[in-house]
Amino acid sequence: MSTIGRERAPVDFSSGAQPTVQWFKSIAVLVEVNGAGDDFTVPADALASFVGRYDIWYKDVVGAASGRRLHLLYHREVSLVGEVPIECASSIVKVGLASRAAGMGFSVTVELRRALEHQAAFEALLRSRVVRSMGIHHREDAVRPPDDDARRLIERTVESGVEIGMIGPVHYFRSIGVLSSGVLNAGNVTVHPRSGAGERAGSGGDGASEACFSRFRIWIDTDGSLYPCLGLRGIASGRLGSVHEPPGNTVLGGRPTVLDLGRLARVGPAVSPSTTGLSPCDRHRLEISGAVET
């Protein structure tokens, strides 16, 4: 029988040696440019405000504000994910400064060609020194930028002290000379091989459910909605709240939800057997959306 629409009891996020809220200590932000082209669809000021308010709430809930569970403050990060509109460098810096003020790392992922098209904005972002790590992405199906320009931009990023991950086909990065670059070999660089543009989170064929903790964080959608993972984006039942309300008024603050966040973090989704080859993540999305009965 379907459980969709039936509210579960609120999760106690602060109890126990391993409070559930620990899986939401980091924030991932999906950003896109607004109609005027000068900010994000969720303004950078609103995102920066949320980061600050969430940091205060998180430290209070886990006990870090009173000196307890300080280990839950380690490795927290705010990430701008997807192909970040580098032309909005001032907006990126605002979010980065708020992250730094909260003691959180700050990372962005940029598309290589877009960074070259807006190189002045990219240089301004590097000069701000708010970015701790950066993913530089080149899709195999993208128009190839001039090799020398691409290599110099990557080297300039490393020289500025940013840890980088090069995302894309290894043969491309080899062909532009960065894999043999002395600048990169002296820096902190990771290569994330990818071939093709169709990869997405949550796929992986049929198989057993896995704990969701590695995918859980606060995901902020381009309209300001909050979700526990990327796979539930756009599903009303998976929405935790909004950046425009206090964290204490969201699901994380105790608002009832059909999601058993504690169980999902530790065990994974309890989904019906698949006859279609869908992954557990995809089946979970369908089931909580009401498309199929649990």
Task: Give structural attributes.
single chain, 294 residues, alpha/beta, 9-stranded mixed β-sheet, 9 helices, 29% helix, disordered N terminus
Structural class: alpha/beta
Please provide the ordered H/E string of secondary-structure elements: EHEHEHHEHEHHEEEEHH
Percentage of residues in DSSP E strands:
5-15%
Average of per-residue pLDDT values: 87
Helices, by number, come to 9
Percent range for helical residues?
A: 25-40%
Low-confidence stretches: 1-6, 196-205
Q: Count the beta strands.
A: 9
Task: Tell me the radius of gyration.
Answer: 20 Å
The first-to-last residue Cα distance is 6 Å
What is the overall shape? globular
The major β-sheet equals:
9 strands, mixed
The largest sheet has its strands arranged as: 6-5-4-3-2-1-7-8-9
SSE inventory with pairings:
Layout: E1 27-30, H1 44-62, E2 77-81, H2 89-101, E3 105-111, H3 112-117, H4 119-128, E4 133-137, H5 147-159, E5 163-168, H6 170-175, H7 182-185, E6 189-193, E7 218-220, E8 225-227, E9 241-242, H8 261-266, H9 280-288
Parallel strand pairs: 1-2, 1-7, 2-3, 3-4, 4-5, 5-6
Antiparallel strand pairs: 7-8, 8-9
Describe the model.
The chain is of the alpha/beta class. 29% of the residues lie in helices and 14% in strands. The chain is built from 9 helices and 9 strands. A 9-stranded mixed sheet has the order 6-5-4-3-2-1-7-8-9. Helix 1 runs parallel beside helix 2 and helix 2 (89-101) runs parallel beside helix 4. The termini are close together. 37% of the residues are buried.
